[in-house]
Specification:
The complex is a heterodimer of chains A (318) and B (549).
Chain A: H1 10-43, H2 60-87, E1 96-103, E2 106-111, E3 116-118, E4 120-124, E5 129-135, E6 140-144, E7 149-153, E8 159-163, E9 169-175, E10 187-193, H3 195-204, H4 211-221, H5 224-228, E11 255-257, E12 263-265, H6 268-276, H7 299-311
Parallel strand pairs in A: 1-5, 4-10
Antiparallel strand pairs in A: 1-2, 2-3, 5-8, 6-7, 6-9, 9-10, 11-12
Helix pairs in contact in A: 1-2, 4-7
Chain B: H1 28-32, H2 37-65, H3 76-95, H4 98-112, H5 120-142, H6 156-160, H7 165-192, H8 205-237, H9 250-284, H10 291-304, H11 320-348, H12 357-380, H13 382-388, H14 392-422, H15 428-455, H16 469-499, H17 542-548
Helix pairs in contact in B: 2-3, 2-4, 2-5, 2-16, 3-5, 4-7, 4-8, 4-14, 5-7, 7-8, 8-9, 8-10, 9-11, 9-12, 9-14, 10-11, 11-12, 12-14, 12-15, 14-15, 15-16
Classes of the chains: A alpha+beta (318), B mainly alpha (549).
């Protein structure tokens, strides 16, 4: 048995400091409450002849004092916890994106280079990693205690989680949202390697295609190219199509004006939603004619399509 | 246990079972069709005792399974159904009703100086609804069970589970109407049936707690009913509400579910606060410290508890801003609870403290509730919650509040008012032993789970990594001690029904109108309607105690 949990990410040490502070405050309050309790129980037991003196009739001063003290301590803890939490929502631009798909009862991991793994996640040490996660069925949760992070993985949308592993080693990963029969088997390992080892691992496990290249094949197979053009440049002159669809070249990361006047950034989540639920956000100037692909394209294929779209440069063949 | 002499301000009437509500009819019909709040309370007591032991049995099997890392029961399917059964039965058929429908039902009219609750027949109807809901849910659980956990998260529960989800939900849906009717009955009774002279600030804290609870029950339970209805619609008719594959939103379920279930946590614990606020003054022989702060703390808990549900969803994929807001609101709701703990300590200060069993349970409550409350601060701190939520840390945290706190308070109250309810005294020494063993067994069971949670062991795991075994074995050992401590009262309380010493009207020398009538009370509660001329807890001042002592 080990009462010690490795702290293997930049975030882990900071969370441990917060938990340490909570432990100290809790211990102090417990000591106070139990201390007073035992003193009173002994001193003021019914048989004790000690002189009680007069009891206080007005209590509001004490009440106000301990209410105020409690509020101040609580507010401090709130700020501390919130500050660390807010950072979890701000992945750095240069983070290495890795795609995770949860399904009953396994984790499928896809690296941009086409490397795939199941229930294992290989990472380089010292580099921010952003996981883009979704589920094929129920809600799962991707948790790595050694990094002090977890996040629910939802069907039908992308959730992200980022961290920077700072210590090579092998750490447990768990599904922590109850997901059915073999929930407790949906666990595995995160393997943190030094950068050269990671490069070697990528090379040895490299798929013959990148995810984007696979995505290109799917783009044709699902008929996306019929309207959006073979290279996403909405040049459909080669195809027998008269349908007008938005150009996809250079779309990723760009602002998209919508019919309702708002503007969204075309990130992973936007692209995903536009494929499975295209009527929700219609690009300004286009008719809502795209059919929904919900239930027809699996989450892994969706990822490849998105990475293909991401690879398309503005206005021309890649 | 020896009867305390009355302090002079309390009239003690002659005791005796004869002429009491217990002898007012001996037929089964006289019990099953009664509208007497005291008899209905006993009907409820029998029912929730059964549910407590069913839920406890499931928990025992869960702890048995976790003795070995690969799972002793050998089947994840069985294990998943057992912890779901434990949660469903304990939450909806023990913790939510426990104190209100037994002690609350029995004591509200007595404390108010009234004949009965405002709507006696509605009270009986709520018992039948509760039993019907319980029967339907038990049917689901024994016909094969439910494997979603008590939280029924979608789309697992609506589209993927192959178990009796709709049947179990139907039972909970039905029993919800029992909660609503009970809450309404309490609110109206406290508004309308107070004895002459009993102003709001002359009411015992117990009544304030049950008033706040009534408001929570009436406002929150309908949301649960709507949620379960939507769940059933999606599961049976595939109407897309929660499953994104058919156009729903899985987080919507969690919002709705916790909008009920967080106030429900306070539905469970508020009556516990009320019980402890009666016991501590009685056994410290001193007026309660900061009466108005305690009662307004209950009311503010009832209000704020409606605005903290999002703290169950800090890692669920809600927005950053909502998480920050729910974090600070969660800290705010903890303030009134802290105020209460300090006030109970203030009550003991300069008191004449006796260590009868109810007081031991109340002291156990303070200790365990404080630990449960403090660890609540850990999971309200956003970044700490990210690490600790969905692990055994959370399991330990809410068991400290619900079992350590609430169940201790329930046993404390049961012992305190046992002489009033049955007209018999329980064996004091056995009761003290049970209180002590319960405290030790509880800590041994749940304290290791805090550590397990910090180390990262997820909850609801049938099998686990071998490094977690030692702490799990400790926890299971504690559970066996705890189980034996729960069996003790079942034995000696039943024994006391037959052989216990007859109780006087006021064996503890406590204040409160319920002690001014006979034990057990007559069907009409009071021979004459009492008139209230002073506030609650008018225990003598230390000065006068020392003059006499």
């Amino acid at each position: 048995m080990s009462l010690w949990l490795p702290a293997a990410s930049d975030n882990a040490a900071e969370v441990d400091h917060l938990i340490g502070a909570l432990l100290v405050i809790s211990a102090a309050v417990l000591l106070l409450v139990f201390g007073l309790l035992f003193v009173y129980l002994i001193k003021y037991r019914a048989g004790s002849p000690i002189d009680r003196g007069a009891i206080a009739q007005k209590t509001w001063r004490v009440e106000t004092a301990w209410t105020a003290a409690t509020l101040v301590i609580f507010f401090g803890l709130f700020v501390w916890g919130a500050d660390l939490y807010v950072r979890l929502f701000q992945p750095p631009q240069r983070a290495l994106k890795i795609y995770v798909v949860g399904k009953q009862w396994m984790w499928k991991v896809e690296h941009a280079g086409g490397q795939r793994e199941i229930n294992t996640l290989h990472l380089p040490v010292g580099m921010p990693v952003e996981l883009v996660m979704t589920s094929e069925d129920v809600i799962h949760d991707f948790a790595v205690p050694a990094f002090r992070i977890k996040h629910d993985v939802l069907p039908g949308r992308y959730e992200t989680l980022w961290f920077t592993p700072n210590r090579p080693g092998i750490y447990s990963l768990y599904c922590t949202q109850f997901c059915g029969l073999d929930h407790s088997k949906m666990s595995g390992n995160v393997v943190v390697l030094s950068p050269p080892e990671f490069q070697t691992w990528l090379a040895q496990n490299g798929g013959s295609h990148t995810l984007a290249a696979d995505g290109r094949a799917l783009f044709m197979r699902y008929g996306c190219s019929g309207c959006h053009g073979i290279d996403g440049s909405n040049d459909t002159s080669g195809a027998q199509s008269t349908v007008r669809a938005p150009s996809l070249g250079g779309l990723y990361g760009a602002p998209v004006p919508l019919t309702d006047g708002s503007v969204v950034i075309a990130d992973d989540r936007y692209l995903h939603d536009s494929i499975v639920d295209p009527e929700r956000q219609i690009v300004a100037g286009y008719a809502p004619i795209m059919p929904s692909f919900a239930g027809q394209i699996g989450e892994e294929d969706l990822l490849k399509l998105i990475l293909y779209i991401k690879s398309l440069p503005a206005g021309g063949s890649p | 246990m020896s009867a305390v002499t009355a302090d002079g301000t309390v009239a003690v009437e002659k005791s005796g079972i004869e002429g009491s509500y217990l002898t007012d009819g001996y037929t089964l019909r006289s019990w099953l069709l009664t509208t007497d709040h005291k008899r209905i309370a006993l009907l409820y007591l029998a029912a929730i005792t059964m549910f407590f032991f069913i839920g406890g049995f499931a928990a025992a099997l869960v702890r048995l399974n976790l003795i070995v890392p690969q799972g002793l029961l050998g089947s994840a399917e069985t294990y998943n159904r057992l912890f779901t059964m434990h949660g469903v039965v304990m939450v909806w058929f023990f913790l939510v009703p426990a104190v209100p429908v037994t002690l609350g039902n029995f004591l509200i009219p007595l404390m108010l100086g009234a004949r009965d609750l405002a709507f006696p027949r509605l009270n009986l109807l709520s018992w039948y609804l509760f039993m019907l809901g319980g029967a339907v849910t038990l049917w689901a659980l024994f016909a094969g069970g439910v494997d979603t956990g008590w939280t029924f998260y979608t789309p697992l529960s609506t589209m993927y589970s192959k178990s009796h989800v709709v049947l179990a939900a139907t039972g909970i849906f039905i029993s919800g109407f029992s909660s609503i009717a009970t809450g309404l009955n309490f609110i109206v009774s406290i508004h309308r049936l107070r004895a002459p002279g009993m102003t709001w600030y002359r009411m015992p804290v117990f009544l304030w707690s049950l008033y706040s609870l009534g408001v929570l029950m009436v406002l929150a339970t309908p949301v649960l009913a709507i949620t379960l209805l939507l769940l059933a619609l999606e599961r049976v008719f595939h109407i897309g509400v929660f499953d994104p594959a058919i156009g729903g939103d899985p987080l919507l379920f969690q919002h709705l579910f916790w909008f009920y279930s967080h106030p429900a946590v306070y539905i469970m614990i508020l009556p516990g606060f009320g019980v402890v606020s009666e016991i501590i003054p009685a056994f410290s022989r001193k007026r309660i410290f900061g009466y108005k702060f305690i009662v307004w703390a209950s009311v503010s808990i009832a209000v704020i508890s409606f605005f903290v549900w999002g703290h169950h969803m800090f890692v669920a994929g809600t927005s950053l801003y909502s998480a920050v807001l729910f974090s600070i609101l969660s800290y705010l709701v903890a303030v009134p609870s802290a105020i209460k703990v300090f006030n109970w300590l203030g009550t003991m200060h300069k008191g004449f403290i006796r260590f009868d069993a109810p007081m031991l349970y109340a002291l156990g409550f303070i200790g365990l509730f404080t630990i449960g409350g403090l660890t609540g601060l850990w999971v309200a701190a956003l970044a700490a919650d990210v690490h600790l939520t969905q692990t055994y840390f959370v399991v330990a945290h809410f068991h400290y509040i619900m079992v350590g706190g609430m169940v201790s308070a329930f046993f404390g109250g049961l012992h305190f008012w046992w002489p009033k309810i049955t007209g018999r005294l329980y064996p004091e020494m056995w009761a003290r032993v049970a209180a002590l063993v319960m405290f030790i067994g509880f800590n041994l069971t749940f304290f290791p789970q805090f550590i397990l949670g910090y180390l990262g062991m997820p909850r609801r795991y049938f099998s686990y990594a071998p490094e977690f075994q030692v702490l799990n074995v400790l926890s299971s050992a504690g559970a066996s001690i705890l189980a034996s401590a729960y069996l003790l009262p079942l034995g000696y309380l039943v024994w006391s029904l037959l052989y216990g010493e007859r109780a006087t009207g006021n064996p503890w020398g406590a204040t409160g109108l319920e002690w001014q009538t006979a034990s057990p009370p007559p069907t009409a509660n009071f021979v004459e309607t009492p008139v209230v001329t002073q506030g609650p807890y008018h225990y003598p001042t230390p000065e006068s105690m020392q003059l006499h002592g």
